[in-house]
Design brief:
It comes from Corynebacterium pollutisoli. By secondary structure, this protein is α+β, with helices and mostly antiparallel strands. It has a domain of 114 residues: 2-Layer Sandwich (Alpha-D-Glucose-1,6-Bisphosphate, Chain A, domain 4), CATH 3.30.530. 21% of the residues lie in helices and 34% in strands. The protein contains four helices and eight strands. An eight-stranded antiparallel β-sheet has the order 1-2-8-7-6-5-4-3. The longest helix has 20 residues. The chain starts with 10 loop residues before the first strand and ends in a 14-residue tail after the last helix.
């Protein structure tokens, strides 16, 4: 029998005050500039996710994920504030993906918050959440200088799907939604 690795999900499905979204948080044991560079530099991005072509200053690049090299898509940069905030929209066959990454430094560590809007796309959190868990674990391995191919997709999907089918109750400090 194979070595089954149990992954602990670090995110949740939020119905949110405006739209449903997937939210994943991580504490990464690397300085903020290193994390930012791995998200925004095409050569470093390619060590864990994929690469892009084009000039980000124009507001759009062509992004190609390693897992789907035959379907590059346009990534439009909505907001970029180095080294703390990046918001992009990605054209995908299942709709437009609206993604934000927020980084905050805490000494030698970085807190990462990833968000993806779930309205208007064909996929739900049960399928998307495990995928981003997989990629964020690959990011940490790349930052550590480790082999990202050591991670197995099957440890994430369908293993973590059930976790992302459940909605998380309102976050502390949020007003409950009216029915």
């Amino acid at each position: 029998m194979g070595d089954m690795t149990t992954r602990e999900p670090t995110g949740y499905l939020s119905t949110g005050p405006v739209w449903p979204e997937l939210i994943i948080t991580r504490r990464i044991p690397h300085i903020i500039d290193a994390v930012w560079n791995h998200i925004t530099d095409p050569e470093l991005l390619d060590t864990w996710y994929g690469t892009f072509e084009g000039e980000p200053a124009t507001g759009a690049v062509t992004l190609t994920a390693q897992e789907s090299p035959d379907t590059p898509g346009e990534a439009r940069i909505q907001h970029c504030e180095a080294p703390t905030a990046l918001a992009v929209t990605l054209d995908s066959p299942g709709g437009v993906w609206v993604l934000t990454v927020t980084l905050s430094a805490d000494g030698e560590e970085t807190d990462l918050e990833f968000r993806q809007r779930l309205d208007g796309i064909e996929y739900d959190a049960a399928d998307i959440g495990p995928g981003w868990e997989y990629y964020l674990d690959r990011l940490v391995l790349a930052l550590d200088g480790e082999d990202v191919s050591a991670l197995q997709w099957d440890d994430y999907h369908p293993a973590l799907c059930e976790h992302y089918r459940r909605e998380r109750p309102e976050e502390p400090g949020q007003m409950p939604e009216e029915n």
